[in-house]
Amino acid sequence: MQVLFTDIDGVLNCRQTPNPRKLPYIVDQKLLVRFKRLVKDTGVTVVLTSTWRYDPAGLFSAKYWEIPFQDVLPDMPDQPRRDEVLAWLSKHPNVTRYAVLDDEDDELDGLPLFQPSARTGLSSEICEGLKRYFARETDQDMRRNALVRVALNIKAMLQGHQG
To answer: Which of 8, 99, 143, 159 could form a disulfide with 112 if both were Cys (CB 3.0 to 4.6 A apart)?
Structure first.
């Protein structure tokens, strides 16, 4: 089984996502179509990592928007997302390959991270990189540069993970 651990905010929505009423739990249809195509093309199992997963309204919204996910990470308060991913993986020994799709770093060093910009969300380039990764054409992930990741980690320490 190949698994894609995915965030929502900054991946399936972004700063450019139309949201005239400023509603929470919004998805950008263009990014969602791109994501669904990626899931179909790779055949991956999707595990939701977003904070939407432990808020009933967020989980309802993920289902409403038809985000294709089969499972969610365990909720481990005060632990970085990396620990939640590793806990999930320890209970699923049949996973042969996995990647994390998240705009934030959240201590994901050492894990294969594909990191879109929160300004633009899931890009075609990230999708192509994930397709090559899951096809085993490469082991290369797609992280943002080190300076940006350090800034994201400092921000997360100061204000917590925002989605």
So the answer is: 99
